[in-house]
Amino acid sequence: MEVKTNDFHAWSEGTEIHLEGTMRLAGTEAYAPIYALMIDVLDRAPPSVTMNLSNLEYLNSSGINMIAKFTIEIRKRENVHLIIKGSDQIPWQKKSLRNLKKLLPELDFLIE
Amino acid sequence: MMSGKMIGSRDVIGEEGASVCRLQLFDGPLELSWHHCATTSDFISDLCVLRVHLPFRQVRDIRHSVAYLTNELLENAVKFKSSGNVGVEAAISHGWFTIKTWNRMGAGSAVRLQSVLPELMAGDAADLLIERIERNAHSGGTESGLGLLTLMSDYGVRLAWTFEAVDRSEEVCLETFAALPIETADMTNARSHI
Known about the structure:
The structure holds two protein chains of two kinds. By secondary structure, chain A is an alpha/beta fold. Chain A is 39% helix and 32% strand. Chain A is built from four helices and seven strands. In chain A, strands 1, 2, 3, 4, 5, 6 and 7 form a seven-stranded mixed beta sheet that branches. In chain A, a hairpin with a 2-residue loop joins strand 2 and strand 3. The radius of gyration of chain A is 13 Å and the shape is globular. In chain B, strands 1-5-6-4-3-2 form a six-stranded antiparallel beta sheet, covered by helices on one side. Chains A and B meet through helix 2, helix 3 and helix 4 of A and helix 1, helix 2, helix 4 and helix 5 of B.
């Protein structure tokens, strides 16, 4: 599965979800196809899921809400380990990713 | 009371004409208006950092924070406006990036907003943000207020709103004010207008 526009690219490879580019979509409905792609990975009941945000330069608050909702969904499923790959060169990640740890303290960050 | 109401940090509301990069986003289809939010916020952030002479890393962070704040306020204005254009005015002054957006909204929507905003301002923004995320995830509700809480919690933004009745109409003019702290130690002009 993948969603691709001029501004961003979302796809999965095995249990790794990649979000790249600039995502400034208009609310929950607009993000629904991307959320569906993420849930599709989770529905395969993997022991761990990786969310790779290393090249996600910009994400608006609706998008941040989407990844928070996904984090809570992983918490609900239990027995699924979440790994988030990010970049300390991308300002929004430095400011907002830490909130996910409050939702799921067991998650691991791999920040480069 | 609908008209003349103010919510938030009063000192965020600047003096008339104290800044100015002033732009208007013309009314149009939502998809186009949404695109204008993105391009306008990028434009304002690029103008803003022209005045900042700091190491690359700090300039990059300021550009991002200004674009993020501007885009969130414009998205809200476009999403909730009832008719007409959306206005935006921005400046850098004494270590703060300040911005004002304005739009018309229906009287009913304004009353609802006036009931929501005090809840968002009532406690610690970081705690409220997590609380609202949890609530939305469990109820399948909308993401109302999350953008504003993210600005306050993660960016240290201070916010205020004014509501004024529009003559002979069922509409209200909403002005949203925000102030973002930025690093200005080496700025060329302590009171630079962009």
